[in-house]
Amino acid sequence: MKKLIKKLAPIIAHNRKMLEQYGADFFQNHSGQQTPWITIVTCCDSRVQPHMFLEEPINQTFTVENIGNAVGSSAGSIDYGIYHLHTPILLIIGHSDCGAVKACLAGYENEGQAIKTALDPVARSFTAGRARSLKDNIRKNIDHQVSVALERYGTLVK
To answer: pTM of the predicted model, to two decimals?
Structure first.
């Protein structure tokens, strides 16, 4: 238990620092409603931190993270950003060394059902064939996810 508390200490300290830095009024101003201008779909890989793209992301981004930055895996959350929050921009972010793409290329039939379900929309990126390099397959996945998003959201997003 002490090890767990020790690991949580930096989170608690950072939370206090944020409150001191911004003040309670800053957070109170955002408590009534959210007004992001962009929906970001990205991989939940711990090395990908979409909140670092903006100096101040609070109430700016509606962020959806899943394995493989797959539109189909999180359609409900993305729908919320597009249809309810009316974000005019949808950004799909992939990254190098994506484990989801690697799993799809290697085969993921031995994974549990929840992981299989999450990987299926990524695997659809390769139904027409695979590229030669991991980097090109990652791009192929991003291109596929963008196509799915454009088909689903049409002219609502850029």
So the answer is: 0.88
